């Protein structure tokens, strides 16, 4: 049987995770500021985190859910750190973090 | 009730961080969303993940974003507001899509699978160090790759 507390939480948490993922994708697609793109990525990852924890909680394998979330957070930090480095390097060269100024890589 | 309030506040903070014209407010909204998410995670019996979320996402990443915001001196508020207005006009359907998806998923997920297992006292440390040992190696490699990438990107030309 599913955890009764999880049964109560399930609809709300799934809806919140889906809305977070869509809001994050929206921010990534609609924005041209590189920092806003990263903020969108962060929000998307928060939706995924919420869903992973819920899956662990509902299935009774909370330890596995936590282990996966910790791995996800480590990967997220590495991605954000490198992306911030790229943003700073781009700002050093172009004096801007607008994606429209970085078009010379287009094939 | 508390869980519902926390989830609503989490979504509101995320939407605020996307819609705010000022980049600093966006970053602060993101930090608040991280803090609220860690509370939600803690209430779902995942304390280790909650501590990681709070310290790393709400702390470290927010500090990184605030420092980059200060270093890059983004566009003025009016310019950003104009740009957002233009973009919102083009992607007007996405917020509606988000709301519709939230409602549909909320209504449809009341039919739950009942064959799932009951919660067990499985320890995250045990899982991480015994059954998912390769994840630890992967994490170390990813962190090393991150450090190497930053040192290459921010290297001063001599």
Number of domains of chain A: 1
Taken together, the total number of domains of chain B comes to 2
Mean pLDDT of chain B: 79
What is the second-level CATH architecture of chain A? Answer: Orthogonal Bundle
The proportion of residues forming helix of chain A, as a percent range, comes to over 70%
Distance between the termini of chain A: 54 Å
CATH level 3 topology of chain A: Helix Hairpins
Q: Would you kindly provide a written description of the structure presented here, covering whatever features stand out?
A:
- The complex is a heterodimer of chains A (107) and B (158).
- Chain A has 107 residues and is mainly α.
- Chain A has one domain (4-93): Helix Hairpins (Orthogonal Bundle), CATH 1.10.287.3510.
- Helices cover 80% and strands 0% of the residues of chain A.
- Chain A contains 3 helices and no strands.
- The relative contact order of chain A is 0.13.
- Chain B starts with a helix and ends in a 5-residue tail after the last helix.
- The longest helix of chain B is centred in the middle third of the chain and has 26 residues, at 47-72.
- Chain B folds into 2 domains: 1-96; 122-158.
- In chain B, 27% of the residues are buried.
- In chain B, helix 1 (2-19) runs antiparallel to helix 2.
- The radius of gyration of chain B is 20 Å and the shape is globular.
- Chain B has helices spanning 2-19, 23-43, 47-72, 77-90, 93-108, 124-131, 133-153.
- Chains A and B meet through helix 1, helix 2 and helix 3 of A and helix 1, helix 2, helix 3, helix 4 and helix 5 of B.
